[in-house]
Amino acid sequence: MFNMRNAVFLERDGILNLPGVEGAYQIAPRTFNELNLNRAAIAPLQELKAAGFALIVTTNQPGVSRGHTSRREIDLMHRLIERTFSLDDIFTCLHDDSDGCPCRKPKPGLFREAAHKWQIDLDHSFVISDKWQDARAAQNAGCTSILIQSPWNGGGHHDFIVANFERAVAKVLQLQLQNTFNCLSA
Ligand SMILES: [Zn+2]
Questions:
Q1: 173 C-alpha to center of ligand 1: Å?
Q2: CA 147 to centroid of ligand 1, rounded, Å
């Protein structure tokens, strides 16, 4: 497989921005002005980029279907997020459960779409998130999942669980090294 890239897929809310919390739920920003970026993620993401990974966000934004936000606000937020974190792309599901779309995580549609567009080798790619839906989607897509401890981890499958974003990035880099070593010694 020539020219295939490995990616790190990132959840948006709770990873790249700091959402509100109401009870058991994260509340995604409804407007550009409510967007509160997690600038502590900038430096670790540069390490992943330097290691050759494509940086791709996948995000469920059902607030558009539910009328809490608009496509325009989402686009404004995503332009800033893409630029701030030097991302390669952002893939968004704007649907709600009742739409039955193939892209709402835990379905793997956004990962498959990204893999097709960017020639990504999903088997050697990673997903970093604080939510079980991403771990499930990762499993469905063939990626390795790294969950950050949160109230949204759920009880299902994940490959690794770590304390914070820096640890998640360190885990990706460690696994990539092991993989390279295994390839060299094969
Ligand atoms: Zn969708």
A1: 30
A2: 22
Residue 124 one-letter amino acid = H
Residue holding tokens 């509100």?
20
The one-character DSSP state at 120 is B
Token reading at 157:
């499958």
- List C-alpha distances in Å: 182 to 2, 81, 121: 19, 35, 17
Q: Which residues partner with 56 through β-bridges?
A: 9, 89
Per-residue pLDDT 10s for the chain (186 aa) are: 568 999 999 999 999 999 999 988 999 999 999 999 999 999 999 999 999 999 999 999 999 999 999 999 999 999 999 999 999 999 999 999 999 999 999 999 999 999 999 999 999 999 999 999 999 999 999 999 999 999 999 999 999 999 999 999 999 999 999 888 787 776
Using the mean position of ligand 1's atoms as its centre, give its distance from the Cα of residue 74 in Å.
15
Helices and strands of the chain, counted as H and E runs: 6, 8
Distance 103 CA to ligand 1 centre (A): 4
Return the SS3 of 118.
helix
Ligand 1 centroid to residue 68 C-alpha, Å: 16
